[in-house]
Design a protein that fits this description.
The protein has 420 residues and is α+β, with helices and mostly antiparallel strands. It has 2 domains: 3-309, 2-Layer Sandwich (BirA Bifunctional Protein, domain 2); 324-419, Rossmann fold, CATH 3.40.50.800. The protein is 28% helix and 29% strand. The structure holds one RNA strand of 77 nucleotides.
Length: 420
RNA sequence: CGGAGUGUAGCGCAGUCUGGUAGCGCACCUGGUUUGGGACCAGGGGGUCGAAGGUUCGAGUCCUUUCACUCCGACCA
C-alpha cells in the first residue's frame, strides 16, 4: 500500500492520559484512537491491518488443529445465561439491555452458553464427537475499571473455542492439543511467554492454564521455576513459596500479561443446559467440555510491551502491519520515485507486505519519513535517496536500527534471505 | 464502590487565586524559500472554555448541581 493513500495520523506528543508504553505508542503511531468512551477505541488502518494479521495466525493454527470456525451473534438472550446461573455470577460486567418487546439481552462477554446452545441443537450422537468450534469476534465486558488501552478495554477481540467430547480422556487429549497449538501461535508471533497453572475463576471447571506474555507492566504476578518448566499464577501458589512443587527447584517471581487461558470444564455447562448426546449404549450423557480463549487485541498490546524502544514500536515479523517500508527520500525526484515503484512491485510479487512511503508534499521530508518508520516499527526500511544514481540504497533494520548500504540489485534477495 | 486528580481548537498546555474582547506550541489551509533526521518566512481557518443553573453591569475565572475522563485501591475468563 501507499503511505500517501493511508490514513496514518502519527503524533509527536502522546495524549496525557495514556501511561502504558503500548497504549502511548499505539496511539502515537496511529494504530488506534480514543473513541469517546472509557475502554473503547477506533481501529485505524494500521491497527486494523495488524489486528487482522494476528487474527489470521490464530485462525491458521486452530484450523490446522482441526477446529471449526463459526460466528455467533454479539447479542445473546439473557435467558441462556439464566440457564447456567451466570447471569447473576457475572454481575454488572454483563451489559444488559432490552429490545422493543421487553426481552432481555446481553452483549456477549464470552460465549459458553451460546456455544453449548449451538451444539445441543446440532449434535446428537457420539459419532459426531469430538468437536471443537471457535469464533474470533468482539466481546464486551463492562469492566469496573477499563485501563491501559488495548490491555483492558471494554470491547475487545477474543478468540473463544469450545470443545465437546464423549469422555474425560478425550477432553484431556484436546486440552493438551490446544496447549501445543497456543504455543505455536505465541511462538509465531515472536512472543516471550510462559504457560502457568491458574485459577478457573468465573468460567468454572477443573484444571486451567494461562498463557502469560512476560512483561514488567503485566497485571498478573506469576511464580516460575528456574530449573524446570513449571510456572503458576500467584492465585494458586502462595507468594512466599520458594520451592518448585514439581522438581524442587527454586521459584522466582515475575510479571505477566494474561493473553490466553485454557480450561478443562467437564460438564459444568452441559449439565445445567441439558446438552446431551446419545452414547454407543443408547444412553443420554452430557458433553464433556473444554474451553480455550485468546485475547487477540490484547496480544497487540503484549507484543509492543515486549518489543519497543524509545523511538517507537518494533513489531515482530509475523505481526507487523508491513514487513518493509520503502522510503523514497525525495518523492519528487523521478529517478528515486521510479526506483521505489519498481522495488515496490518486485517485493509485492514475492509476497512481501510492503508500504511505499511515496509522500511528496513539501511538509513531509526525509526526516519525517524516517521518524514515522521508527514510530510505526516495521521490521525493515529501504531508503532510496541520492545514491540511487549509483544504484545504491540503504537497508535499515528496525530492531537495533542497524544500517547497511547495498546495491539495489541485490536488495530483494537480501530481504528474502532475512525473512526466511 | 472508596481515595486523588483533570475537563479551554485535532494533540499538548497557559489563563481561574485577584471577574473586564479566547491565548501559546504542534497539527491544518494559502503563497514563497527549502529538501538525508520531525525546516523557515509571511498570511490564514478552526472554540457554545464538559453541561445546567445561580451571583454580577459583565463569568473560562466566583457559587451550586451534574456529567465525563484519568490515576491509586477493591474487582477482573
Amino acid at each position: 500500500m501507499r503511505f500517501s493513500r493511508l490514513l496514518i495520523p502519527t503524533m509527536k506528543e502522546a495524549p496525557s492520559d495514556a501511561v502504558l508504553t503500548s497504549h502511548i505508542l499505539l496511539l502515537r503511531a496511529g494504530f488506534i484512537q480514543t473513541s469517546g468512551g472509557s475502554g473503547l477505541y477506533n481501529w485505524l488502518p494500521l491497527g486494523k491491518i495488524t489486528l487482522d494479521k494476528v487474527r489470521a495466525i490464530v485462525k491458521d493454527e486452530l484450523d490446522k488443529a482441526g477446529c471449526n470456525e463459526v460466528h455467533l451473534p454479539m447479542v445473546t438472550p439473557l435467558s441462556l445465561w439464566e440457564e447456567t446461573g451466570r447471569a447473576d455470577k457475572f454481575g454488572k460486567e454483563l451489559l444488559r439491555f432490552k429490545d422493543r418487546h421487553e426481552n432481555s439481552f446481553t452483549l456477549s462477554p464470552t460465549n459458553e452458553e451460546a456455544m453449548v446452545n449451538l451444539v445441543r441443537q446440532t449434535v446428537k450422537s457420539y459419532k459426531q464427537l469430538p468437536l471443537n468450534v471457535y469464533q474470533i469476534n468482539w466481546k464486551f465486558r463492562d469492566e469496573v475499571r477499563p485501563r491501559f488501552g488495548l490491555m483492558r478495554g471494554r470491547e475487545f477481540l477474543m478468540k473463544d473455542a469450545y470443545s465437546f467430547h464423549a469422555t474425560t480422556e478425550d477432553m484431556e487429549r484436546e486440552f493438551a492439543l490446544m496447549e501445543e497449538t497456543y504455543k505455536k501461535i505465541f511462538t509465531r508471533l515472536g512472543l516471550d511467554f510462559k504457560v502457568v497453572e491458574a485459577d478457573s475463576g468465573a468460567i468454572g471447571g477443573a484444571g486451567s492454564k494461562e498463557f502469560m506474555v512476560l512483561a514488567d507492566s503485566g497485571e498478573d504476578t506469576i511464580m516460575v521455576c528456574d530449573s524446570c518448566d513449571f510456572g503458576a499464577n500467584v492465585e494458586v501458589v502462595a507468594e512466599d513459596e520458594k520451592t518448585c512443587p514439581k522438581c524442587g527447584g527454586e521459584l522466582s517471581q515475575t510479571k505477566g500479561i494474561e493473553a490466553g487461558h485454557i480450561f478443562q470444564l467437564g460438564t459444568v455447562y452441559s449439565e445445567p443446559m441439558k446438552a446431551e448426546f446419545l452414547n454407543e449404549n443408547q444412553k443420554l450423557e452430557p458433553f464433556i467440555m473444554g474451553t480455550y480463549g485468546i485475547g487477540v487485541s490484547r496480544l497487540l498490546a503484549g507484543i509492543i510491551e515486549q518489543n519497543h524502544d524509545e523511538k517507537g514500536c518494533i513489531w515482530t515479523k509475523e505481526s507487523a502491519p508491513f514487513t518493509v517500508d520503502i522510503i523514497v527520500a525525495k518523492a519528487k525526484n523521478t529517478e528515486q520515485m521510479e526506483a521505489g515503484e519498481k522495488l515496490y512491485a518486485q517485493l509485492q510479487a514475492k509476497g512481501v507486505d510492503v508500504l511505499l512511503d511515496d509522500r511528496a508534499d513539501k511538509k513531509t521530508g526525509f526526516g519525517v519519513k524516517v521518524k514515522d518508520f521508527e514510530l510505526i516499527g516495521m521490521p525493515y526500511a529501504v531508503v532510496i535517496g541520492n545514491d540511487i544514481s549509483e544504484g545504491k540504497v540503504e537497508l535499515i533494520t528496525r530492531d537495533g536500527l542497524e544500517k547497511e548500504e547495498m546495491a539495489l540489485d541485490s536488495l530483494v534477495e537480501t530481504i528474502l534471505e532475512k525473512l526466511a
